[in-house]
Amino acid sequence: MELSSEQEYEEIIKEQLEIARDNIDSNTFFFNENTSNLMIGPNLPPPIIAEIVNCPEKNNQAILRKVKHYIESGADIIDIGCVANKPYPERIKEVVHLIRKNFDILISIDSMEKNEILAATDEGIDLILSLDKGNYKEFLDIPRDIPIVLLPTNLKKGLFPSEPKIRVENLLALTRVLKQSGFKKLIADPLLETPIAPGFCNSLEAYFLYKKQVLKKENKNLELPLFFGVSNVVELMDIDSVGINGLLASIAIELDIGVLFTTEHSTKLMGGVRELKDSVKLNYISKYKTVPPINHGIEIFKAKGKTSQSIPEIDRSEVIFLKEYSPRYTPDKNGYFKFYVNHYNKEILALFFSMDERLLTTLIGKSAEALSKKIIELNLTNNVFHINYIGRELNRAELCLQFGKPFIQDET
After folding, report:
1. Does some domain include residue 411?
2. Both 258 and 360 in a single domain?
3. pLDDT (tens place) for every residue of the chain, 412 residues total
4. 130: domain range?
């Protein structure tokens, strides 16, 4: 019996995890072997860290909603994204407790601030983002088995090197110091940056250079898994995220990246974690088949696709051609609809109001067809032009729900 793509993916992972468990070292390790079997290392699919941006300033309900959405989308680690220059150490503790009380998921903290990182460490945080040459001395007393992401910067002195060679040298130097101090689980971040300015290709060069440098005999014991900040690229481009996530996932798999970092902070990135997860699966299978990421049964198309429709031959002599439609709006005496899309609950809301603005009926569902049929069944309207409009808007709402696209009702 032929395996499905999902089954094939799971079989490859199972095989590679067995190999990884027998080869634990500074380049292959569990994030937290006491609570999770999630590993990072060569030939393993990169886990996805999903950040809740400005997390300490959000209320508990918003945090739990985001965590639930991220987990359902395929995130492996939930990141508490902190607020720059506004430390919330006590709130960090509350958030860690909140997430752990409600979900079985690994948690990281994204902060450079001492009190926040130490507060998270006190709560047994599973991953720290990040230490650099400017702040690492403040954390030499924390447990040695907490995974830590290293940056090639010195942000306290305002040093953010753009030269790939310097970034790699800084990472290797910091790795050497922390290894000598007994830290066992380190992850190197050469810093992926936005296209054009400051420059995607320049930052990508640092990743290639790092891979070359750790192959040298004098650096071999300094090789670490690499961190790939996908959201640094996707967030700052006004281009649909699905293709960008797919391409970045292919680069990550080719480079054998250790872990991916992303977020769904802005409206345009809704559904990005799922896009990235599916893209990892597609490219990971391709890697082990040593073929391009195509025709594996995993498709991540949204706006386009691979199949086409056969169009019949038509006698065009008696065809009615419609160039445009000029609507003549006549209000439906029964009332009017307002439609909404809730991406987190994966719901379409259809609210029916009387002409004097009283809410008469509320329908909630996921399917445009089901909602439109229920509207007809309830006899909420028998105006054929209104019914046409309702079907059109519900179809748009379902597409927006499916694609993670914002929905704005057409009022005409």
Report:
1. no
2. no
3. 677 888 999 999 999 999 999 999 999 999 999 999 999 999 999 999 999 999 999 999 999 999 999 999 999 999 999 999 999 999 999 999 999 999 999 999 999 999 999 999 999 999 999 999 999 999 999 999 999 999 999 999 999 999 999 999 999 999 999 999 999 999 999 999 999 999 999 999 999 999 999 999 999 899 999 999 999 999 999 999 999 999 999 999 999 999 999 999 988 899 999 999 999 999 999 999 999 999 988 989 888 888 888 989 999 888 988 877 666 677 899 999 999 999 989 999 999 999 999 999 999 999 999 999 999 999 999 999 999 999 999 999 999 998 888 999 987 6
4. 5-289
Looking at the fold, whether 128 and 214 belong to one and the same domain comes out as yes
CA distances from 393 to 104, 159, 386, 397 (A): 38, 52, 11, 6
Rounded Cα gap, residues 248 and 70, in angstroms: 19
Q: Which residues contact 131 (CB under 8 A, 6 or more apart)?
A: 139, 148, 149, 150, 151, 174, 178
pTM of the model: 0.91
